[in-house]
Description:
This protein is mainly α and 330 residues long. The chain has helices at 25-31, 33-38, 63-73, 85-98, 101-113, 122-135, 138-150, 172-203, 208-220, 226-232, 235-243, 268-282, 288-292, 321-324, and strands at 7-12, 19-24, 47-48, 54-58. The chain has a 4-stranded mixed sheet with strand order 2-1-4-3.
Amino acid sequence: xxxxxxxxxxxxxxxxxxxxxxxxxxxxxxxxxxxxxxxxxxxxxxxxxxxxxxxxxxxxxxxxxxxxxxxxxxxxxxxxxxxxxxxxxxxxxxxxxxxxxxxxxxxxxxxxxxxxxxxxxxxxxxxxxxxxxxxxxxxxxxxxxxxxxxxxxxxxxxxxxxxxxxxxxxxxxxxxxxxxxxxxxxxxxxxxxxxxxxxxxxxxxxxxxxxxxxxxxxxxxxxxxxxxxxxxxxxxxxxxxxxxxxxxxxxxxxxxxxxxxxxxxxxxxxxxxxxxxxxxxxxxxxxxxxxxxxxxxxxxxxxxxxxxxxxxxxxxxxxxxxxxxxxxxx
Length: 330
């Protein structure tokens, strides 16, 4: 295969086991300022090979991730967006190292989308939030910040451990804000149960069968007693329990506001479902654009939008994420 004068050979991986990857200096220079500086005539570490192409050694980079990135940037036909979680981590590390957010954005979005419905484990959620921040994926960042809010009980605080030490750390204040948002939502849902029970007992004492039915369902759905159960349940579990609550047989075919029904004030299932819908309406993930401006929580002014342009012109910082996050521990 004839070599172009513009060709460069990357030697990726440890010496003796390095993989040779031929790339176009022009293509990579347009993709990243880091590559542009690396491939400039004054870059001292580049040396010509026996065939005339310039060689650059990248001993610390992962060969598989580097190959994938170079294939994407050169529009090669063999690129797959169905990559493993581990490979995505390695690609994110190189994306941050070489400042490739904009160049890889379309492909990274495709790769991240498949994980949005699969991942619920805490460390993977945190890693995907981290990758989303590196790739500039507003939708993925929003989705996994909401999953961390949605899938863990009050008594479980999010771990502050960094899942992958090679990825730049997200600030602990970010996870503290998610923890602090979860508790009041569950408390509101708990209060909905307690206030409706109180209303039933006070005003519906003549409907013993109905009240007994409600208590039995609360036990069966794991919602009773609320003082302890709501510490153990997630917002998702409480929501699903509320929405699956069945009305007493006496309510079948009746309208909630039927003025002729003497027990309309004790319609328990409708009140719980309304409380669930109200709680969901208040839930939102975190906006990546706001996060990059230092707004780590809704209290700090994070708008909570999942749309990239909601905050105005798309913010793109020119530096790698580890340098952008001077917010660290506050």
